[in-house]
Amino acid sequence: MDSPSHPSRTRPHRRAWPRWGRRPAFALVGGLVVLFLAASAAPSPLYPLWASQWGASQGALTAVFAVYALALLAALLVFGRASDVVGRRPVLLVATALELVSLLVFLAASDVPLLLLARAVQGVATGLAVGTAGAALLDLAPPGRPARGALVNSAAPTFGLGLGALGSGTVVELSAGPARIVFGALAALVALALVALVALPETSGTGPGPQRRAALLRSLRPSAAVPVASRRRFTSAVPVFVATWALGALQLSLGPSVAREVLRVEHPLAGAALVASFSVAGGTAALLGARAGSRALELGGALALAAGSLVSAAGLVTASLPAYAAGTAVAGAGFGAAFAGALRAVAATAAADRRGGLLTSVYVVSYLAFSLPALAAGELSGRLGLLPVVVAYTAAVVVLAAVAAVVAGRAPAPARAAVSTSATCSPVQTP
What we know:
By secondary structure, the chain is mainly alpha-helical. The protein has helices at 22-41, 47-54, 58-79, 82-86, 88-108, 112-140, 147-174, 178-197, 210-219, 231-262, 268-288, 294-317, 321-347, 355-384, 386-409, 416-424. Helices cover 77% and strands 0% of the residues. The longest helix is centred in the middle third of the chain and has 32 residues, at 231-262. The radius of gyration is 21 Å and the shape is globular.
């Protein structure tokens, strides 16, 4: 660990706590994003198991999925700008402590109400973490490589979702008590992260005392703040955010049921692998597109999202597992590329002290698309049948992705100067 780089900012009579250097801190926050998103995806392979054990309906389990996203949205709207005022570290510490509580509730869960409670707490924790961690990654990006923060912001969530689903599915396949192993292991990792975060260097925050308290109270008014300089580019990216996360919600909420009931995939690990292929392809596409222009990445990703969704829908209609698997992977790659391009372009427009609010707005839009369509699909599948609902949902995503491609092609050109300025002018601070 590095000692504080600005010792004059600490009080003379207090010994400064040692802090991680810039690179380890960047890696820690990136790993934290992966861990949070892995934990959010871990319940997905367990839904069919819980349904058979407790006799829960598809609608009830979709509600368990959706309550997470709705709680996340509430936390984003209320606390999304808090880290711009009180600093990144305190918000991440609270978020990680709440995540640990949610995993302990999962360990104790024996019915749907406890699952709802666990997912609600997990949603609040993730809502506190995602915008704050995203802003911290932009702050801590290596000097001279400012785009690295936006790259990790876009790739880490998709890799986390894939790893969580695949890891949980593997445990379901091999163990008689999968929930205890999955959530016990995640709880141990989160506890370690909580300890490591104590030494995270601070990169944000308003002045001390009454000034900070007043600013914090103002920031807690529910809102999604898009800076004036970011509004045009943010608006043009909304179709991409909606199309990508709506399809991700379908994969995580109904993907395991589709694999089992429509494609007759009996093994939980195989079903989890299908879900994971979507997310891992997304993370891989985001990494491979690191050197591509944001507009090209956004446009190409939207087209791949539409094409892959069409192929996967055809695979469902014909009950062809290879076609569905191939389409899912292509759509996942489109997810990662389109979201990475849009996020990079939007993040480039924000000054350092506006990143928390801007990233919050991105995730508000994304998680609205992640929760409401999936909740409706879960309710309708019980009345109309799983296959027609999933095919109709996928068709809607295809249309939206086509719209996103058109909008991305006409989006404002990225401001390269804004990228270098906003991402490099924020030195790591220590209290």
